[in-house]
Amino acid sequence: MRERILLSWSSGKDSAWSLYRLRTGTDYEVVGLLTTVTEPYERVSMHGVRRNVLKAQAAAAGLPLTEVLIPAPCPNEIYEERMAAAMAGARDDAIGTVAFGDLFLEDIRDYRESKLATVGMRAVFPLWLEPTEGLAREMVAGGLRAVVVCVDPRQLDASFAGRMYDEVFLRDLPPGVDPCGENGEFHTLVVGGPIFDGDLNVTIGEPVEREGFVFADVSLAS
């Protein structure tokens, strides 16, 4: 019998490919998605993805969605308090493990593991330490469709916001930019691929700058 787990869902490619790996493996059954939403903006934290697009992703993946609502700005103690409440709900549903799409950042992994340990849970990392060049091309070749929704213009030109995450995008990345954006160069929104039962029908808006980042606003097409 496979272990029931939650997947931390950022709305982006690494979360989506983690779901793909978990579903094609034999050890785990993903029974829900867990996402932090910045309540005043009604958007996924950092990625800036609209809440209704997030819910459309969950529906396309065929999974229930747990939203952890946080204020803006959000003190760390409030974040931890609300995340602990979400974990309590997971434990009540006989879930003891959460999967994350992190690849390299040891401090983030340590933080996740330590916080889950305090509530008697553990973390798994399906993509941990995978070389990002090969992983990026595996995602694209595997049919993942994603839009680049956030760019840090200090690391990558703002013109990359709103582009599809595909072979052309990877080819055009300047030297020094990680092809999976592991240094925070960019973030993505998944709109199709093997983890969904059909592609999302979306419209990509003109990029705008907010708080030092460039965002491409993606909305559901009417």
User: Span between N and C termini?
Assistant: 42 Å
Rounded mean pLDDT score: 95
Note the quaternary state here: single chain
**From the helix content, strand content and strand pairing, which structural class follows?**
alpha/beta
Which regions contain 5 or more consecutive residues with pLDDT less than 50? none
Tally of separate helices: 6
Strand content: 25-35%
General form:
globular
Tell me the total number of β-strands: 10
The percentage helix is: 25-40%
Radius of gyration: 17 Å
Characterize the biggest β-sheet: 6 strands, mixed
Give the SSE string. Answer: EHEEHEHEHEHEHEEE
Q: What would your notes on this structure say?
A:
The protein has 222 residues and is of the alpha/beta class. 31% of the residues lie in helices and 28% in strands. It is built from 6 helices and 10 strands; from the N terminus they run βαββαβαβαβαβαβββ. It has helices spanning 13-24, 51-61, 76-92, 106-117, 132-141, 167-172, and strands at 3-8, 28-38, 43-44, 65-70, 97-99, 122-124, 145-151, 186-192, 202-210, 213-220. Strand 2 and strand 3 form a beta hairpin. It is globular, with a radius of gyration of 17 Å.
